[in-house]
Structures are given as structure tokens and as C-alpha cells.
Amino acid sequence: MATDKLFRKRQRLVSDFTFGRHTAKVFDDMLTRSVPFYGEIQRMIGELAADFAVEGSNLYDLGCSTGNTFCLLDPLVSKGVRFVGVDSSPEMLAKAREKVKRHGMQRAHEFVCADLNRGVQVTNASVVIMILTLQFIRPLYRHTLIKSIASGMNDQGCFILVEKVLPRDSMLNRLFIKYYYAFKERQGYTTMEIAQKREALENVLVPYRLEENQELLLSSGFSQCDVFFKWYNFCGLVALKTRHDSPAKAE
Ligand SMILES: C[S@@+](CC[C@H](N)C(=O)[O-])C[C@H]1O[C@@H](n2cnc3c(N)ncnc32)[C@H](O)[C@@H]1O
Questions:
Q1: How many A from CA of 18 to the centre of ligand 1?
Q2: Within 38-169, where are the H helices?
């Protein structure tokens, strides 16, 4: 796995972050060193997806990058489920195609190069996954996008959304950022790398507050949602179209 050194050298002018060739090359290393508990988040998604994926339906990964999630899900999800990966970066998709081939994935699958700002056509979906991608979609288009996801999902389907989120309180915001940077330093990133990447993401990654994302889901066709993962400003949400019976009281 190539090491992420994209921001190691001092840049006179930091340009906006992109998901092109240079990022795709080091992306897997970047992801595991930049997302706290990425492995555990993926493991939990595997568990959820395996329970909701239905034979004969589609499972979508929107913003699939290099295809990590499909490789993880392949042994867990019934073989009769077709995988559809969507991403706007041809370089990421080239890596994804190569990776699922190397992985020996036999099931029906497709990778689609498309800009999610323009919406997405989801059909017969039992599971839709969107990991750290909605935050890159322009806020103006998020509602339409989530509505189109919800309307293309089957009634018993589940939508799994992982996002960076902002705390409501400004002091907590500062503290969460401080703890996140400490995490990145523990992963071997220098203070300068952290600062330059932050600058590059400034106008590109636009996080919502957790409640804003919940509101977005509930106003777009999902009848309920819950948090399945939270680490400071990283959050995993699971949304369902159909309300299920109340669970039994805690044992
Ligand atoms: C942080 S990465 C997602 C990580 C990935 N889900 C995973 O767990 O490995 C964000 C991805 O979203 C894609 N992306 C960003 N903006 C997009 C857009 N407007 N339409 C489609 N894909 C987009 C990027 O190319 C990138 O691969």
C-alpha cells in the first residue's frame, strides 16, 4: 500500500483537495490513517448489510472509491445480491475494478462513473451505503440526492451513512478537532501535513451537524434513523424506510 505523503512538502499555495490520480494512488493508506476506527466501521457495516441485503436486489456503494467496502462485503452478503459502485473519479474506479478482480469477486457487479451532485438512479435496492461522501456533495443538492436514494430503495431497505459531523457547541468543536489532530499525529502525520490537508479540504468537505443529517434523512423518505457509531466528529447513521416494531426492553 503506497504511503500517503500528499501534504508532506510545504506548499506555497494549497489548492483544493481532489480525488484524482495522486489521491487514488495513496487513498487506502490515507483512509486508514485518517478515519478513526475505519476497520471497525467497515466491520459494523458488513454486519448490517448482511442482515438487510436481499437475494435478487441491488446493494449500492455511493462514493465507493477503491472498492474496499465491496471486498469486505463480498464474503458476508448473499451471492444473489448485485453490487453497484458509484464514484465520480475514474482513477478511483480503475483501482476498484482492479481490486475486486484481484479479490476474486464472482457476483454480478457494476461500477458507474457519475457525479452525485446530479442525483443518482437507485433501483431495487435493499442496501445503500455512503461512507464519507455526502460531505463532498454540494449542500444545495443533498436533499434531492437523499430523496432519490430513498425512493429507489425497497421498503425493508437500509441506508448506511457515515459522515464527519460538527458539534453544536463551539468549544466542543475546538476540542474534537484537537483530539482528531492528535489521532492523526499518532498515525504519523506531521503538524504541517495536517494543517495543509485541512486547508485543502476547507471549501470541499462541508460537514453538517448530526441533527441536520438526521433531519435530512427523515425529511427525504426515511421513517427512522439511529446512530450506530460515533467518535468525536465521525458518525455512522442507519436509516430505514419502514418503521419496525419497537424492540423488547433491555434485558
Ligand atoms: C472519502 S471518499 C469515500 C471513501 C469510501 N466510501 C470508502 O469507505 O472507502 C469520497 C469518495 O467520494 C467520491 N466523490 C466525491 N464527490 C463526488 C461526487 N460529486 N459524485 C460522486 N462521487 C464523489 C470521491 O471520488 C471519493 O472516492
A1: 10
A2: 38-52, 68-73, 90-103, 139-151
